[in-house]
Structure formats: structure tokens, C-alpha cells
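Feature request disguised as a bug: please show the residue count (185) next to PIH1D1/2/3 CS-like domain-containing protein in the output. Example input:
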Amino acid sequence: MCSTGSTEDVLQQMSKLWSMLDDLSENDPAAYRTLIEKQIKEGAEFRAPPELDSCLCTEILKPKKGLLYINICGWKRVPAPAEKIKKDLIHVISAASVEPQKPEYRLEVKTDAAGVPDSVELTVELPMVCSMSECQLSMSKDDVLLEVEDLYYLLVDFPKTVNEDTASAIFNKKKRRLTLKVNVL
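Example output, currently without the count:
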């Protein structure tokens, strides 16, 4: 029942519909009850809100760093796709390994009150790292190597010879920053 006519035409069609429903209710009450129950059930399904299936969380790096949450919902109002869904939802674009990038870092020599080199401090920005456990740190008296599998690779020579036994590393989860401090020999 679709009408693009005047209000009078629409009212006339609605009157015919109500008349047909009245006839059905008088002549076949069981069929009328089945029709009404079906309409109520379909209406409730149609008006039902989307149902949450899963939620994805990812980090946005540009233009402003932050977290993005994506809710994946199912909704009866949206028909299923006509084409057959492929089993492999994630397609591998390239199997070649990605070269790790060199992270931003700052290397400073700290001095004591007399101006004598006291320690070396390395600060590394790791925006795609969530925890220290992802980092592999190797150090000698001359250099330090930081690796995060498939993400970062940093080899830095110390400007002064250091005492490896005095090294301490702290990872700030909120800022995603690794700070390494070591005393100079």
C-alpha cells in the first residue's frame, strides 16, 4: 500500500485496509490473530537496537595521538550481504617483513656540581609500545641496543665509557617513553 496522492486518497486506502482487517477478524479470527502476532513480532525485531558483537581498540598517531574504539554491531534492520562471505576475513597484503624504524631519542651527559661527567641518560619515544616486556635492551660499556620486534631498532654509541652494572631503565606507560640511566666510568 503505497500512495503518493492527496490526503483524501491516503485516508481512503487506510479505510479499505481497516475494512479488510475487520472482515478478516469476523470471518477468520485465528488467521487475524496470527497476522497481528506476526506483525507485532516483526515490528519488535525491526525496532530492536543494534546488538554489540565485539569492540576493537587501536591507537591513532596522527593528527592527534589518542585511542580509537570501534564497536562492531549486528542489526536486524540491515540485511545480510547477498554475496557469500569469505572465510578469511583478514587478507595478507604482503608477507614481506617490515623494516623496523629508528625511534626518536635524546642522549644527554649529566654532570656533577663540578662539571665532571657523572652519568648518561638516554630517553627514547616509543609510541607504538605498550609495555617494557616488548622491549629488548642490550648494553655494553660503549653502546646500547634497543629492539622492539618489527617496530623499532636503535643502536646508540655512548659519548663516554659507562659502568653497565649501574644501568637502570624505566618505561613510562602513559607517555610511552623509555628512560635509561647509567653512570660514567
